[in-house]
Amino acid sequence: MTLLRKEKIIGEVSNYVLNDMIDPSSLTYKQKILLYLKDREHQYGRVEKQEDITQKGISQNVGISRTHLSRVLSSLSEQDLIKEELAPVAGHDRKMKTYSLTSQGVKKADKILNELSETSIDLIEGGEERKVTLSRVEEETDGKLDLLKCISLLEEEDEKSIDLRKQGIIEPVKMIENIPRTEDFYGRDEELERMERWIESDRSALVVLGRKGYGASTLTAKFIRDLEERHVLWIKLEGKTEEKIKKRISDFLEKIDAESEKIMNELPSHKAVVVFDDYYEIGGDVVSFLQDFLDQIEKNDPLKMIITGREGTPVYERFYRTKHVEDGVVEELKVSPLDREEAEKILKNDLKEEALERIMMFTKGSPQLLRLLQQGEEEKLCELTPWEKEQISLLMYLKTETKN
């Protein structure tokens, strides 16, 4: 059920005074929490609750600090608008404090919804602008923009309009030509989960590091292909100069209907991810550009950047500093070798234990080498490794040593 109901809200609301019209961009935290809990009425009768009605969930979804939230919840409880319950929560071993509306809280939330429902805002898409009432926003955006998200965006912009493309809500632009293939992608569940947590965090940059052939770029490509509601720009750094990088960013901004002249004045305000792929042996001008690029992104900007590179890159050749990591601006993700189970999936054979062990000893769990071995690419293996032809022939034989 959506927050904004079309039917007329009936019922007397006592001890509550509203202006003739509520401004959706200036709701109080108390009002936001009432609306938030109203949208989760379906949970109230369940024995096991979800984390979204705990203090942690309310804090994250309403956008209020845990310290301030405690005071607001106490005030709402004293006014008999919400009630607190110690209950089992999915994913947690112990009971936690959960929150729901009282009957009086439901009346007040309904009153706010009724006042808000006919407030008009401007939705901008592809340079065209149209007026939409808040009661129809969710329907007009196919459920991608609900009331609380709408309120949050209006507060950020400090005006009554939302640019859907700028926010990545509708029709995100993806300039990802020449991105690595991911059809035969296996494993990496832990790494992908970390990337999911990062994209929802306030950290601006993610640096994905791995040895050559470990698949840092392929992992990032998999994450990007599955990413929704964000514009994506993929820039392969090999052979690029600062001028070429700026030109590609400018082209990207034009595609999302943004001002393309002053790229760093415009780009950080968009809900986008810029991937700088293969940070390895690049020019000093590119290093300096990336240093400036990172320094100009604030932690609260919607823009995110991912950099794939080689593990072991000397500190003096990196564009970020230890302080960036310590201050929570940059997160590092080191790509580990594939394990035996994942290696077997790539080889597509149920191998004998001894054969798999020897293959793992040679390839050290490198996805690239395992794929070349599976595809029978002897010349490529000879080119990329120090192995002798006899060793490669042995590996080709071992990959046929199945248990059956």
How would you sum up this structure in a few lines?
The protein has 404 residues and is an alpha/beta fold.
CATH architecture descriptor of the largest domain: 3-Layer(aba) Sandwich
Helix and strand pattern: HHHEEHEEHHEEHEHEHHEHEHEHHHHH
How many helices? The count is 17
Evaluate the radius of gyration: 26 Å
Mean model confidence by pLDDT:
82
Tags for this model:
six-stranded parallel β-sheet, Rossmann fold, 4 domains, Arc Repressor Mutant, subunit A, 11 strands, single chain, 404 residues, three-stranded mixed β-sheet, alpha/beta, globular
Write structural notes for this entry.
The protein is of the alpha/beta class and 404 residues long. It has 4 domains: 1-117, Orthogonal Bundle (Arc Repressor Mutant, subunit A), CATH 1.10.10; 118-167; 174-334, 3-Layer(aba) Sandwich (Rossmann fold); 340-398, no CATH class. The chain has helices at 29-38, 55-62, 66-78, 103-116, 137-140, 147-157, 189-200, 216-225, 242-255, 263-266, 284-295, 322-326, 340-347, 353-363, 367-375, 378-384, 389-398, and strands at residues 82-87, 96-101, 120-125, 128-133, 161-163, 174-175, 205-210, 231-236, 272-279, 304-310, 330-334. The strands form 3 sheets. The protein has a 6-stranded parallel sheet with strand order 6-8-9-10-7-11, sandwiched between helices. The chain has a 3-stranded mixed sheet with strand order 4-3-5.
